[in-house]
Design a protein that fits this description.
heterodimer; A: alpha/beta; 10-stranded mixed β-sheet; globular; B: 317 residues; alpha/beta; 8-stranded mixed β-sheet
Chain lengths: 272, 317
């Protein structure tokens, strides 16, 4: 492992990307969405997890794109793939249980890891209609672990999300809508759930028994008290391990010189 | 063999009637049949029921132009060129459109069920989410569940009766009147060869009552039949064909041309309001035909999108 970069050498996007990348273990099968997750996963492929298998929702299986795709439907996704197929295969593979890890995002998250990407306000008369679910709930239902990458604002870390697009550790059992543990609802299909939230403030994990989010590490310069203040729910800060590890110089090299030199997703920090 | 499957762009759009249920090839900002979408807007088609595995710019254009009454899908946006569907969002706010949300895998499995002639699919996805909230059955609330095109119920919650695997969800097959595909090659008899990711094209073609394949080029059928294992959709699933170079612009096509990101950014930035949409449509759709549109784009712009034929995309450097 190369040395850690000094604070003036990296930006917040670099820190998030590297923290996300470190969630992957070698040989895992990973579902990555568009944007920063794609850079994170390709970074892992270049560093500690050279044998990870990358699945893009639009249908390429075990791809090795040499140039960063701008979306999962991009022609670049297919380069070096074991198989090019379609969504039916990608989702069947996921439901069958092949996927270890998925990277996702969201507009709002609650203390159980329920995520909203559908609307702000009452669903039937929304203040703002967003993109909708996409594959967020599917990957989150099928994968063993999911990692959410989010902008940390108090209005986004809420007691209850406007709409549960993607299932966390405690969810609603329909048609009645009672809150139950995810294990109870998914039956034989239960494999896990959200394992980490990487926000612009820190890294959060979940107590899988009671389903609550807790603060794991603070990003450099942030305190647990500040981060607790950035959540509308009562964040557990009793288990904090310390600071999020900064990017290494090697990781920064791969992000900016190899993976995203055109700064499509990760801006470069301007050197003073 | 006969070439009587050939039609024009105008005819392709005329096959889609007011009130038809409609779907497309492609994925978000890739391989969407834009030339036909523009023609539907010129012909002022109304009351469409769009059923899409996922939406994209084509959704936004049709919705902005007032062609769509119901949108059933899971996602709309322009990827990194526009983060959400501003036209859909505006019309939802004004209650000018009905939106029925399913998850992405649910939409895909609904198409797969339709493609295999099954009335429904079974899945374990999205349990516990508000996608399954009975209060949010928008088409039910609107009294549109006729049991014909629109299923009597949005979901049925059940338990695995065979192996005791626990909770399952049944989702209804989609009912598609017309599927319009945008592909690289089609033969004179309708055989389709898709290059690159297939997205949900094979299921869409098989599920629809009428399938139209708009191709970058029509090629001799025997050329495709020399390597049948490379083909994607069999001839008899395709009812009509047409050739339309750059017909997917501003979306991209593997091996042919990349996404015109600048065009999508302009569209996203300029069409937050209805006035903005109308002005954009006036400039780029009304009063133009496909050749006029390409002429307006101009050769330099299109050459800048053209894919390298070895790489299948246009390299950045």
């Amino acid at each position: 492992m190369s040395k850690y970069a000094s604070p003036e050498e990296y930006g917040l996007a670099d820190l998030l990307c590297c923290a996300a990348s470190r969630e992957v273990q070698d040989n895992e099968i990973v579902f990555a969405g568009t944007g920063l997750p794609m850079v994170a996963i390709m970074l892992a492929q270049k560093t500690h997890a050279p044998n990870l298998k990358l699945i893009f929702e639009a249908g390429t299986l075990d791809g090795r794109p040499p140039e960063l795709p701008t979306s999962v439907g991009d022609a670049r996704c297919e380069t070096g793939a074991s198989r090019s197929s379609g969504l039916y295969d990608a989702f069947s593979i996921a439901q069958r249980g092949y996927v270890d890890l998925g990277y996702l995002g969201g507009a709002e998250i609650d203390q159980y890891g329920n995520v909203n990407t559908t609307c702000i306000g009452n669903y039937l008369e929304p203040e703002l209609r967003l993109t909708g679910s996409g594959g967020n709930p599917d990957i989150n239902s099928f994968a063993r672990r999911t990692v959410f990458i989010m902008v940390h604002e108090k209005r986004r870390f809420v007691e209850h999300v406007s709409y549960i697009t993607s299932p966390g550790w405690r969810v609603k059992k329909w048609p009645g809508g009672e809150w139950v543990h995810r294990r109870e609802l998914y039956g034989a299909a239960f494999r896990g759930g959200p394992s980490a939230v990487i926000s612009t403030a820190g890294v959060f994990r979940f107590d899988e028994n009671d389903g609550h989010m807790y603060l794991d590490t603070c990003h450099p310069g942030k305190t647990p008290a500040e981060i607790k203040e950035l959540c509308q729910f009562d964040l557990d800060v009793s288990r904090v391990k310390g600071e999020t590890a900064p990017p290494t110089t090697d990781e920064l090299h791969f992000i900016h010189d190899v993976l995203d030199p055109s700064q499509i997703f990760i801006p470069k920090v301007k050197k003073a | 063999m006969s070439t009587n499957k050939r039609i024009t762009l105008q005819q392709a759009a005329e096959i889609v009637k007011n009130g038809s249920s409609l779907t497309f090839s492609g994925f978000t900002i890739w391989r969407r049949p834009f030339a036909v979408v523009y023609e539907l807007i010129r012909q002022k088609r109304r009351g469409l029921h769009l059923i899409e595995v996922n939406g994209g710019p084509q959704t936004e254009f049709l919705v902005g132009a007032g062609c769509v009454d119901i949108w059933e899908s899971c996602w709309v946006g322009h990827e990194l060129y526009g983060k959400y569907g501003a036209n859909l969002s505006r019309k939802v706010g004004k209650k000018e459109i009905l939106v029925e949300d399913y998850s992405h895998a649910e939409m895909m499995f609904r198409f797969a069920a339709a493609a295999q002639g099954a009335p429904y699919a079974v899945t374990q996805t999205s349990l516990g989410t508000d996608i399954h909230n009975p209060e949010y059955d928008v088409l039910g609330r609107a009294g549109r569940r006729d049991g014909k095109r629109i299923a009597k119920q949005k979901y049925i919650f059940t338990e695995d009766p065979f192996f005791g695997a626990g909770p399952q969800v049944l989702v209804p097959a989609v009912k598609i009147d017309v599927a319009i595909l945008c592909v690289q090659q089609v033969g004179e008899e309708g055989t389709v060869r898709v290059a690159g990711q297939l997205y949900s094209d094979p299921e869409a073609a098989r599920a629809a009552d009428i399938t139209i394949a708009m191709a970058e080029e029509i090629v001799p059928e025997e050329y495709l039949r020399r390597d049948a294992d490379h083909n994607t959709i069999p001839s008899f699933e395709v009812d009509y064909i047409l050739e339309c170079p750059f017909g997917g612009h501003p979306t991209g096509m593997f091996g042919c041309y990349d996404v015109d990101g600048a065009f999508l950014k302009d569209f996203y930035a300029g069409t937050r309001t209805q006035e903005g949409f109308n002005a954009f449509a006036e400039e780029w759709i009304y009063g133009l035909d496909h050749m006029g549109y390409l002429e307006k784009l101009g050769w330099p712009r299109m050459l800048n999108l053209r894919a390298n034929t070895a790489l299948n995309y246009r390299p950045r450097n």
